[in-house]
Write a structure and sequence with these properties.
Elements: H1 2-5, H2 10-17, H3 33-46, E1 55-58, H4 61-75, H5 77-81, E2 84-87, H6 88-99, H7 114-127
Parallel strand pairs: 1-2
Helix pairs in contact: 2-3, 3-4
Length: 139
């Protein structure tokens, strides 16, 4: 791991090696925040923390793929694949699918977006022969 840490500046290294509680990384654009997070995860894995103990949320799928790829370059594909990393929606969809039967669903359920939901309500209104001027989805 020392060869990895040597690629960081002193503040980045300090953030990566800190393991006594939560940490907050505040820095400007292009200052290496993603690098710190990537190396922090790699550092924790190299310290023996199981990959499935780590949850990393990103705003985009692209960011998650890039970060997971960088981590795989540092610690290997096998460990990187076991990480819980992705967007809020992707991670919690995965959790729901893993636990679906506990809450009375099958793992192959469909998640509706707002457009899907509105279309379903319109279909129900039509099938129940309700007045669509009185029952307006989203109104």
């Amino acid at each position: 791991m020392e060869h990895l840490l040597s690629q960081l500046n002193s503040k980045q290294r300090e953030a990566v090696e800190f393991c006594d509680g939560p940490s907050l990384i505040i820095a400007g654009a292009g200052s290496g925040k993603t690098r710190v997070l990537t190396y922090k995860i790699a550092y924790l894995l190299e310290q023996g923390l199981p990959p499935y103990y780590i949850l990393a949320l990103t705003f985009t799928n692209k960011a998650a793929r890039e970060m997971k790829s960088r981590i795989a370059d540092l610690v290997g594909e096998k460990k990187a694949r076991q990480l819980w990393m992705g967007t809020f929606h992707a991670i919690f969809s995965r959790i729901l699918r893993n636990e679906a039967e506990r809450i009375g669903f099958t793992p192959n359920f469909t998640i509706f977006d707002s457009s899907d939901s509105s279309n379903l309500v319109r279909l129900i209104i039509k099938e129940m022969q309700l007045d669509d001027k009185v029952y307006r989805p989203g109104a």
